[in-house]
Design a protein that fits this description.
The protein is mainly α and 239 residues long. The chain has eleven helices and no strands.
Length: 239
């Protein structure tokens, strides 16, 4: 009897989930065809979907992610005021906070195609918070802080924030060799060469790549020369 009730409970849960998925599909289809008066006005938030998923949060996350991809491919033009894609990927990462690929892919799409830099940054920062140290276990984990640095440098014109995120990306094992040098250059540009030097010295000590070590040594020497020139500059003379 108990087993029968449990089976009925699972069946009921699956039917309820199917009904939710169908309702979401109708809403997205109407939005894609322009029939919704306000873009996804009634689409549930990620928190609401977590409740509606009835224990099938990862399955719901996969479903919404597929809808996000379909929506992206079926949209004619993408005005900056259209937050449909952002709302979908935000819902996916609320349903499944460990869905690493969606943070990166969503962040890149929001920046590259939507020019929605604030939304891209929000999604990428959400990924940093939710994934934490686990990012360093993925050889591509450096991309998330790197994209944040890219957004701040090229779109926000915020060199200090860009440098801090490039610095964070540089600490990932899978990062490209040029990244520590880029981070150091930006740190020096924000008028803090000593921090850049200490950072490069640590990278030099940790690396076994002789070519990389030589590049770092050259950069350290360059920064020390700049540091010496600044210290000898008379006060009151602009840089």
């Amino acid at each position: 009897m108990a087993r029968t009730l449990r089976s009925l409970g699972w069946a009921g849960g699956l039917l309820a989930l199917a009904a939710v998925l169908y309702a979401l599909q109708v809403t997205i289809d109407q939005t894609r065809r322009g029939q919704a008066p306000s873009r996804l006005q009634y689409f549930p938030s990620g928190e609401q979907l977590r409740v509606l998923a009835l224990g099938y949060r990862e399955a719901m996350a996969d479903f919404v992610w597929l809808q996000a991809i379909q929506y992206l491919g079926g949209t004619d033009g993408w005005p900056r005021t259209d937050l449909t894609f952002y709302r979908l990927v935000d819902a996916v990462t609320t349903l499944d906070p460990r869905y690493e690929f969606v943070y990166l892919a969503g962040g890149v799409v929001l920046t590259r195609y939507g020019r929605q830099i604030d939304e891209s940054n929000r999604l990428l920062l959400k990924g940093l918070r939710n994934l934490g140290p686990a990012l360093k276990e993925n050889p591509f984990g450096w991309w998330i802080p790197f994209m944040l640095g890219y957004n701040y440098f090229f779109y926000k014109r915020d060199v200090a924030s860009a440098a801090s995120y490039f610095l964070l990306a540089s600490e990932h094992p899978g990062r490209p060799g040029y990244l520590p040098l880029l981070a150091a250059r930006l740190i020096a540009e924000r008028d803090d060469p000593e921090v850049a030097i200490r950072f490069l010295e640590r990278m030099h000590a940790e690396s076994r790549d002789e070519n990389f070590r030589k590049d770092v040594e050259a950069k350290i020497e360059e920064l020390r020369r700049q540091q010496g020139a600044r210290s000898q500059r008379p006060s009151g003379i602009p840089r």
